[in-house]
Batch of 2 targets.
Target 1
Amino acid sequence: MSRHSVIGRVLLTFALFALLLSGCQQPRMSVLEPQGEAGQMQLDLVYLSIYIMVFVCVIVLAIFTYVLIRFRQKPGDNTIPKQVEGSTKLEILWTVVPIILLAILAVPTLKSTFTLAAKPPKAEQPVEVKVTAHQYWWEFEYPELGIKTAQELHIPTGKKVHLELTSVDVVHSFWVPSLAGKTDLIPGRKNTMWMKADKPGTYEGRCAELCGASHALMNFHVVAEKPEEFQKWVKQRQKPSSQPQTAQEKEGKKVFAQNCMGCHAIDGAGLKGPGNKGPNLAGFGDRDKIAGLLENNPENLNKWLHNPQNVKPGAHMPAIDFLKKKDLDALEAYLESLK
Ligand code: CUA
């Protein structure tokens, strides 16, 4: 095979791989394409450390190449070159240079760490959200707006959202690659961070700390809306139209009260039992996903209720397989009617 055709084949392989990998990119889920201020600040730090690493590599390789050529053994010359072991000058040089490089990296990193955890000033009217992680779902509470929801974090665009993060069981980590993160959620501790979305859109979020069997399935998403749209959502959540309309939905509400209220509440539906072990289901019918994973449709709801362990192994949700079909249908109709 000629040299040209080898190079041609190598290039072709690279091109195919590039094409293949470009398909991996999920829309709006990349740290390399930040969609807001916090994400941009974090990416800038990544670039800074890459620049420093490249700088170090180039200098070391240059010295290495120089030494290799300059100090090669010449034919007939058996003398040993001058030894530099214990040279004070060199010792100082390779101690001081890394310290300077680390300082260049550390100062902006520390500054950003504190800036990103600080509470935005009142004048900026940040939206306050308390995030509580559970195995394996997310609770979002807006204390100033009186809203409690799960799995879908609604935020207005162009405004800072200040998050207070904690966990009720094990350590989780809040990560919305294109907006901000990762910040740990630790039982008994409150961590804070803020994020901001410039443009409306749905941004995928993940748990970034191994927290059990369904860690990789602990998905959520952030829905960023124009401020007017966000206000509409807030109004709807504050005054949900959660009363059942049809006879089947009314029946479903009863089934819910008898079987589900121990763990789940539905704000605004008169169903605020003791239950807050599971997600608050207010507005369930409006959510995109069931359990943060399945498309929200009746078929998937049935799949989830029948065997949650199949969808999310280790979830605390029990299988609802003891209900009569009629009751289960009614329950599903009622849940999908919650707006
Ligand atoms: Cu929660 Cu991993």
Target 2
Amino acid sequence: MIFLKTDDEIELLRQSNLLVGKTLAEVAKVIRPGVTTRYLDKLAEEFIRDHGAIPTFKGYPNPYGGPFPGTLCTSVNEQVVHGIPNDIPLQDGDIVSVDCGTLLNGFCGDSAYTFCVGEVEPEKLALLKTTKEALYKGIESAVHGKRIGDIGYAVQQHCEANSYGVVREFVGHGIGKKMHEDPQVPNYGRRGTGILLKSGMCIAIEPMITMGRREVVMESDNWTIRTKDRSCAAHFEHTIAIRAGKADILSSFEYIEEVLGDKAI
Ligand code: MG
Ligand code: MG
């Protein structure tokens, strides 16, 4: 069941998503070699709660094991998504996807950004750049009257044209009062296929792109997803509202990129 949101509901979704962007900017301020993802997680949780919101990932149930223990998903290098914050210091040259979710005034925020730690090699920078571009190409296709397959097609074409792998097992999703609603939003697809996009639909688009093959496996912690071939992966995510002509991006990278300055991808 797909819930179309009213304009008022979309404004509430925007507020929750802007808080996610501001939380990720707090992460951006401190991310450097030697910092642990557990530290980033603690900082994010405090920031979210200080703003009257709830971190939605914390305690999220898992069909394979225990609930998610963190506020952030922190996925380093070959980890794609759902990495658990831990005490391993980030190293110079790492890339780390930081995914964050909030519940504010009854509505969910969900956005992710892949950060560079210190000096990162050009191949990894190119992966990040292409993944972020693919997200915006997906958003360009996410307009009233198009279909869900148009979004996946746009993402897939851009990434595969650059010889990257597009993860199939994990997808974007509808978002609203719940973090994961219908429909599923794959990062691959055929033009003109799938459900019709309508103004007021709110979805999270989140390409998960690999430098090597697209296959992924789950680690023994029952959460962390990594590439099977251990090639690096990147992940960027925006929550958007479908509109006629142009999507309304409800989350924001502006706060993050203000902090990153000329280091922004
Ligand atoms: Mg997310
Ligand atoms: Mg998501």
